[in-house]
Amino acid sequence: MISYKNKIKYIFKDLDLLNLALTHKSASQENNERLEFLGDSIISFYISEELYRQNDEIDEGKLTQLRAKLVNRSLLNSIGKRLNLDQDLILGKGEKVTDTSILGNTLEALVGAIYIDGGIEAAKKVLNDIFDLEISNLKTEEDSRDSKSKLQEILQKKSFNLPNYSVKDRGPEKKNQRFKVTCRIEDLEISSFGVGKNRKIAEQKAAEKLLKTNFYND
């Protein structure tokens, strides 16, 4: 029974490729090292693209720092454990995953195999599911003074009630614009909306629009 399938929504056409992705070098000369090499590049590309799209005011240096927080051995190992890859691995006798990079390497190999089996869009769809939480929770320097916090501070200083945020899930087919959030300030009878891959991003964009259109002098 393949345990990771409870976590990853992808069905392989080539089961030999899947088997290779899960085979560690300690178990066979035919192993997942080449797939690992490929998957590493695909994950790095995916993270770079998502950070570029979602942070249009951050420069290249900061984007590089943020990518390093997501494309590192510790996090990849953690995700591999979360996906139950330790239960699916084909290991040689005496080999253990504890205190090693094996789970992260296997995750990379699995992504490489998905790319070969189903193409880049299939790989990116799986990576969307795998990294959504990590990207959503990624803290940037701007997060400490984000648009929602700025808007709240301004309204409190003016003795207005805090804004109301209402969200609409427009379905997975919308991808990076899946969630639409309306931010409304009842006391001033003004509102704006923002869209994003997740609710947090959409809320920030809605608040940012209100700041730019109504509180640019505050």
Tell me briefly what this model is.
With 218 residues, the chain is mostly helical. The protein is 51% helix and 9% strand.
Helix content: 40-55%
User: Mean pLDDT score, rounded?
Assistant: 89
CA radius of gyration? 21 Å
Please count the helical segments.
8
DSSP summary, beta strand count? 3
Question: Which residues sit in consecutive blocks of at least 5 with pLDDT less than 50?
Answer: 140-144
Into which percentage range does the β-strand content fall? Answer: 5-15%
Give the neighbour order of strands across the main sheet.
1-2-3
Identify the quaternary structure here.
Answer: single chain
Order of helices and strands: HHHHHHHEEEH
Structural class: mainly alpha
Query: How would a crystallographer describe the biggest sheet?
Result: 3 strands, antiparallel
Structure description:
- By secondary structure, the protein is mainly alpha-helical.
- 51% of the residues lie in helices and 9% in strands.
- It contains 8 helices and 3 strands.
- Strands 1-2-3 form a 3-stranded antiparallel β-sheet.
- Strand 2 and strand 3 form a beta hairpin.
- The longest helix has 22 residues.
- About 2% of the residues have low confidence.
